[in-house]
Amino acid sequence: MTLNNAEIVTQAQNGDKESLDQLTGQAQKRIRAYLYRCTMDFDVADELTQETTLAMIQSIKNLKKADSFWPWLYKVARSKLNAHYRKKKAEQKQKTENFCRQYMARMSEKTSREGLENILRTELARTVISTIQELKPNEREILSLRCLDRLGYADIAQITDCTEKSARIQFFRAKQA
């Protein structure tokens, strides 16, 4: 006799180990594929699949409607995914703040200017670094090469494997962004 998903879920909720194993196997395949499509990263998808599976096993008894198992499980996976992105964003913010502190420390070592000029320079540098962090990687690269390394468009084009005209356009777009 073949059971439908709702019956398998109900049996798993009642403590049937075989049903829970069967459900876990199905869930891992579907959730891993979903998370991989969302992240495009196998390692992250595997990690989040494990977290989702663990959450499923721990809280399946609390599921009120057995026939809503899949939407519920995808919602759990999505919650894990959002938590992952929040953590990643917080880590990136911390990296940016650390970089700003280190940069400011080096700048203050190099210059002994005091007063309002130093405060304005520090605040401006923080704003610029924070804004640059939000750019796409290729935009950061172009801005860095042009503004910080003071390279010409011909050199930038050679480094980035594009035409000089394309380098100018990309720089303009990066500035606008």
How would you describe the overall organization of this protein?
The chain has 177 residues and is mostly helical. The chain has helices at residues 5-13, 17-39, 42-59, 69-110, 116-133, 137-148, 153-160, 164-176. α2 (17-39) packs antiparallel against α3 (42-59), α3 packs across α4 and α7 (153-160) packs across α8 (164-176). 14% of the residues are buried. The model has no long low-confidence stretch (mean pLDDT 84).
Order of helices and strands: HHHHHHHH
Estimate the mean pLDDT confidence.
Answer: 84
Largest sheet: none
> Radius of gyration from the CA trace?
26 Å
| Secondary structure: helix percent | over 70%
Overall geometry comes to elongated
Poorly predicted sequence stretches spanning 5 or more consecutive residues: none
Q: Cα distance, first to last residue?
A: 61 Å
Q: What proportion strand?
A: under 5%
- Strand element count: 0
Secondary-structure class: mainly alpha
Question: What is the helix tally?
Answer: 8
List the helices and strands and how they pair.
Blueprint: H1 5-13, H2 17-39, H3 42-59, H4 69-110, H5 116-133, H6 137-148, H7 153-160, H8 164-176
What does this entry show, briefly?
This protein is mostly helical. The chain is built from eight helices and no strands.
Write out key terms for the chains shown:
177 residues, mainly alpha, 8 helices, 81% helix, 0% strand
